[in-house]
Amino acid sequence: MTDATPWWKKAVIYQIYPRSFQDSNGDGIGDIPGIISRLPYLEKLGIDAIWLSPVYRSPQDDNGYDISDYQDIDPIFGTLSDMDRLIAEAGKRGIRIIMDLVLNHSSDEHPWFLEAKKSRDNPFHDYYIWRDGDGIHPPDETKASFGGSAWEWVPGVGQYYFHQFSVKQPDLNWKNPRLRSALYSMIRWWTQRGIRGFRLDVVDHLGKDPDLGIKVNGPMLHPYLREMRLQAFSDPGLVTVGEAWSADTDSAKLYSNPDGSELSMVFQFDHMKLDQRPEGDKWDLVPPDFIALKQIFTKWQRGLSGCGWNSLFWENHDLPRSISHLADDGEYRIPSAKMLAILLHGMQGTPYVYQGEELGMTNAWDFTLEEYQDIEIRNMIREKRAAGLPDEEILRRVRSKGRDNARTPMQWDAGPQAGFSSGTPWLRVNPNYREINAASQVDRPGSVFECYRTLIRLRKELPVFTDGTYVPLLEDHEKLFAYRRRDSGSELLVICNFSAGCTENPLAAETAEGELLVCSYESAGQPSVLRPYEARMYLKTRDLGKDEANE
Ligand code: TEU
Ligand code: CA
Predict the structure, then answer these.
(1) Which of 46, 124, 321, 362 is spaced 20 to 30 A from 403 at the CA atom?
(2) What secondary structure letter does DSSP report for 131?
C-alpha cells in the first residue's frame, strides 16, 4: 500500500436508504435532516463514506429510482440546501457523500419525457427509445423487470416506448450524444456541490440495443463508460461503483481496470444468486450451496487481484437481510451477524455496510401480503396469483426474498416506532426492534455494532487487509469457511463455522500461533472447537527469515 493508494481502497462505505433511515418531521418517511441528526452514530461506527440511495425529485414509483429532476431534491426528503448541509456536516466528520446515479432510465414525469411524447419531431423525442406499431402488438416479446411487456403504447405519437423496469421508468437512449452530454454535465454539477462519488444503477444496461435484443453488455457499454470517465469523473478523488448483475471476472477487470479508465469497482452478484434455480426467476428458491459460495469468493478474490478491485457486500436495499438469508436470525443471531461481518471484512476489496446490517437486523417474517409496498413485490403477487400459485406460497417466497425485508425502518431504540419516526412509518417497523436496536448496542462490548466498529478500525490500521493476497483454506469442508491473507509483514487467518453445531477446528495448531483479533463470541472457547456460527480472525506477524526459507 503506497501513498498513491486511492482512499476508497482503504475505506468502508455505508449505504443509506433515506426513506427508511430517520424521519425528522413525523410524516413517516426518512429524510435528509434525519440523516444529518444521525451523523454522530455513523462517525462512531467509523465509516468513510455514505452511499445515499436516490433523493432526487421523483414520483416515487420505484422509491426514487424513477427520477423526474436530476438536479433537485424530492420534497419528501428535504431541499437542496438540506443536501448542501449534509455534504458539509458529513465532511466535518470525515465522511464523504456518494450519490446514486440512475442513468439507464428516467421517470415518465421527467420534462424530457413529457416533451418526447408530444411528437416524433420534438427535440427530446430521441432521448428515449421508440418503435412504430399498432397499439395491439408490441414490437417484440421483451418483458419488463417489474412485470408486463417492455413496450408501452403512446397513442399521441403512435409509437411504443421501451422500458426495462416499470412503465413509469422509460429507458433513456444512450445512442443520443446530446442525452449523454446532458447527463455528464448534471454529474459535474453534483461534483461541484461536493459529491465525492457515485453508485451507477444497472450500469451494465447502458449499452442496451433493443434492435439486437441486447439488454446488458451491449457493444457500446465500455466505450460509453470511458467517455463518461473523461467527461464526468475526471477528478481522481471520486469513487465510482457500478451495479452489474451480469458482471463476471472478465468484465469486472474492464470496469475496475487499475488504469482508472472506467470505474473504481462494480457490485457483482454471483454470491447472491445461489438461492435461485438457474432456469427459474428470483422467486424460484433453492437452498444455497455452501461449497459453491466458497468457490465464488475464491474466484473473485483471485480473479481481480492486482488487475481490478472488488466491492464486498452481503446486503443492499434490493436483497434480503443477510443473516436471514445465509446464516441464522434466531437462536444464533448475534454470532451469525458477526460471523458474516468478519468473513467479508477480512477479504480484499471495499466493504459496504447496509443500514441496520451493523445491528444484525433481520427479515420481516410477520408481514402479510397486503403490507408490502415494493413495486417489484406487488407485481410479483399479481403475476403469481394469475399463474395459480397459492397465497401461502407467494407469501413464503416474499418473506424470504422480497426487497421490503431490507426496507423496514432503521431500529434506533426500543421506544415507539423504534425511534424512526414520531408518526406512522411508510413501512411497518419490524417487531423485533425492542430487542434489536442501536441504543442497546453502541458502546456495549460484544454487540454486533461493536464488532463492525472493530473491523472497520482494523482495516485502517493493518495494510494486509488492503493488499494481502488471498488463499482459500479447507475448500471442500462442508461447514467451515477459512482463508488466509498475506503481505510482506503479516498474515491474517479467518475461520468461520457456518453451522448450528460445534465443529472441530482442523487449523487449531496454526491458530494457536496467532493473536486473536476478533471473534463472534465474547467468551474464550476452546481452540480446537468452533461453536455455532463462531468466526475468528487471527493476526500473525511474519517471521520473514523463516517464511522466505519456506517459500
Ligand atoms: O436494481 C437493479 C435490478 O436489476 C433490480 O431489478 C434488482 O435486480 C431486483 O431488485 C432484484 O430482484 C436497481 C436498483 O438497485 C433497484 O432498486 C431499482 O428498482 C432498479 O435498479 C431500477 O432502477
Ligand atoms: Ca420525513
Answers:
(1) 46
(2) E
Compute, in angstroms, the gap from residue 403 CA to the centroid of ligand 1. 9
Strand partners, 171: 105
The one catalytic residue among 100, 201, 315, 491: 201
pLDDT of residue 46: 98
Instruction: Please check whether residue 201 is in contact with residue 103, taking contact to mean a CB–CB distance below 8 angstroms.
Output: yes
Q: Note if 475 is an active site residue.
A: no
Widest CA span in the chain: 78
- Residue 405 grid cell: 425485508
For the chain, domains (ranges, CATH) are 8-104+177-364+405-448 (3.20.20.80), 111-162 (3.90.400.10), 467-550 (2.60.40.1180)
| CA end-to-end span of the chain | 22
The per-residue DSSP string of 159-180 comes to EEEE-SS-TTSPBB-TT-HHHH
Ligand of minimum distance to the alpha carbon of 425: 2
Q: How far is the CA of 25 from the centre of ligand 2 (A)?
A: 5
Is the pLDDT at 550 greater than 60? The verdict is no
* Angle made by CA atoms 103, 118, 73, in degrees to the nearest 5: 40
CA 70–ligand 2 middle distance (angstroms): 20
From the CA of 27, how far away is ligand 2's center (Å)? 5
H-helix segments, 166-285: 177-192, 221-231, 249-255
**pLDDT at 545 exceeding the cut of 80:** no
Q: What percent of the chain has pLDDT over 90?
A: 96
Question: Cβ < 6 Å from ligand 1: which residues?
Answer: 62, 65, 102, 145, 165, 201-202, 243, 245, 282, 317-318, 376, 403
Average pLDDT of the segment spanning 177-182: 98
Alpha-carbon span 323 to 503, nearest angstrom: 19
Q: What is the pTM of this model?
A: 0.97
The catalytically annotated residue of 243, 329, 357, 467 is 243
Helix 375-386, helix 391-401: angle, nearest 10: 150
Q: Which residue's CA is minimally distant from atom 14 of ligand 1?
A: 201
Q: Which residues surround ligand 2, an ion (CB under 5 A)?
A: 23, 25, 27, 29, 31
- How far apart (Å, rounded) are the C-alpha atoms in residues 106 and 353? 27
Annotated catalytic residue 392: no
CA distance 266 to 245: 9
